From TrEMBL:
Organism whose genome encodes this protein: Aspergillus cavernicola
EC number: 3.1.3.3
Keywords: Amino-acid biosynthesis, Hydrolase, Magnesium, Metal-binding, Serine biosynthesis
Stored PANTHER family: PHOSPHOSERINE PHOSPHATASE
InterPro entries: HAD-like_SerB, HAD-like_sf, HAD_sf, PSP
Pathway noted in the entry: Amino-acid biosynthesis; L-serine biosynthesis; L-serine from 3-phospho-D-glycerate: step 3/3
Designated name of the protein: phosphoserine phosphatase
Length: 469
């Protein structure tokens, strides 16, 4: 009781003075440094340790000269990153990621009755389907495995149907988590179509992941990037940043389901009522389930007796894909040579080349009976079949004829018979391709217009409008 004050009240607890506290964790710890620089070094401390160790290391001294401009006064940097002064060394490789928001084909439609605003009592759950591009087939009945994994959370529904700032931040976080050994990355980005709510954003980052740990081919198909695409409803196209990425000189296209929305052989089959049989073979061939040359001969044999003027009638039926005219016009104005390499038929390939200003047209030649002016159901034997190998060969030969480096070539297609030329070209784009092709192609886009290919060259909306005007 003797410790109490005369009034019987305990004294208050001691507290730090106001000038000793701050809102900064760093400042709170820097306040214990000596007010003036301490000149004593570790060597001096060790030399005098045996004589005056207690006095040399008093409570208010610091054996290391503090630097008020840095937090790590000891000189040891506790970080997983390499702190380097200045910019990265000249010549450090760069990668470019072009991010497209998928406005035409949302991955996360509100199909569940509990979440759909248009749901009615009694609605049934939708039949489970495999996302396009995630398996060789999207027919769940043909997949002899367990059901597909649940879809990731649709973050684009929360943060906006475009490439949002959080979407971009999430992508950079994923990229920075991949390299080994760790590096501090330099990154920059451009909105290629519009600054407000962009649909296309280009991200440049350097250095790329260590190829000993993660090759560029594996990076393109990395599970973290795939999941990011699913979560944000986007597509990511990764390219190495070189001068050849921006300056192309040769562009080759598939025809059916690429430059045009039709499959020509299916359209011919409608004339004789065998569309179903031909369409089934075509679908399997484009998915890589059948040998292309054998399947082509099988389908052509079903066309025996069709009038030879069928190609003239088909011209009014064929639909040129959205953006095909503009894309070809833009490439021509950039000085590129264009070619159509088609597993279809020569008369329509030549017609399409004339419509789009394409320089070369290579397709299959159907044999015609000169007496009856009908198709014989055979291919002209003197011309090679335009299969996957022949498309790649033609790409090589046309490039060689014009002295074009392979890094300056572009190939666009959708079928399994396009995969070899897609991998051979400097930029191979699977355009709204079959599921198997999307899995194996180096690059895939599923947009509404073929003009999107121009964004992969680093062109922005103003550049594209000037080219297609």
């Amino acid at each position: 009781m003797s410790s109490l004050t005369p009034a019987g009240i305990r004294p208050s607890r001691p507290v730090l003075r106001q000038n000793l506290s701050s809102s900064s964790f760093i400042h709170d710890h820097q306040q214990y440094k000596p007010p003036v620089p301490y000149t004593q070094t570790i060597g001096n401390v060790l030399e005098n340790a045996s004589e005056s160790f207690p006095s040399a290391l008093s409570r208010n001294t610091n054996p290391i000269n503090p630097d008020p401009k840095k937090v790590t006064d000891s000189g040891i940097i506790h970080s997983i990153f390499h702190h380097q002064e200045g910019l990265l060394p000249q010549g450090t490789p760069k990668l470019v990621a072009t991010i497209f928001y998928k406005t035409s084909d949302p991955v996360h439609p509100h199909l569940h009755p509990d979440s759909s605003p248009n749901a009615r009592p009694g609605d049934k759950l939708p039949y489970p389907m495999v996302p396009v591009g995630s398996a060789p087939t999207i027919d769940i009945e043909k997949i002899p495995r367990e059901p597909p994994v649940p879809e990731p959370e649709p973050l684009d529904h929360l943060y906006g149907p475009y490439v949002s700032q959080l979407c971009l931040t999430n992508f950079l976080q994923i990229i920075e988590s991949l390299p080994t050994p760790y590096h501090r990355m330099n990154t920059s980005h451009r909105c290629l179509d519009q600054h407000d709510q962009p649909r296309v954003v280009e991200v440049t980052f350097s250095p790329p992941p260590n190829p000993d740990y993660l090759t560029f081919a594996d990076l393109r198909k990395h599970e973290s990037i795939w999941r990011f695409e699913r979560e944000w409803n986007v597509e990511v196209v990764l390219q190495k940043e070189t001068v050849f990425r921006r300056h192309k000189r040769l562009v080759v296209f598939d025809m059916d389901s690429t430059l045009i929305q039709n499959e020509v052989i299916d359209e011919i089959a409608k004339f004789i009522g065998v569309e179903k049989q031909v369409s089934e073979i075509t679908e399997r061939a484009m998915n890589g389930e059948l040998d292309f040359s054998a399947s082509l001969k099988e389908r052509v044999s079903l066309l025996k007796g069709v009038p030879a003027d069928v190609f003239e009638k088909l011209k009014s039926v064929l639909t040129i894909s959205p953006g095909a005219r503009e894309l070809c016009r833009a490439f021509k104005r950039l000085g590129c040579k264009l070619a159509v390499l088609s597993g279809g038929f020569q008369p329509l390939a030549e017609w399409l080349a004339g419509e789009l200003g394409i320089d070369y047209a290579h397709a299959n030649h159907l044999e015609i009976d000169s007496a009856s002016q009908t198709l014989t159901g055979q291919l002209v034997p003197t011309y090679p079949i335009i299969d996957a190998n022949q498309k790649r060969t033609l790409l090589h030969s046309i490039a060689a004829d014009h002295g074009v480096d392979f890094a300056q070539t572009v190939a666009v297609g959708d079928g399994a018979n396009d995969l070899l030329m897609l991998h051979a070209a400097g930029l191979g784009v699977a355009w709204r391709a079959k599921s198997k092709v999307q899995l194996e192609a180096p690059t895939r886009i599923n947009g509404e217009s073929l003009v999107d290919v121009l964004y992969l060259l680093g062109l922005n909306h103003e550049d594209i409008q000037e080219l297609i005007a």
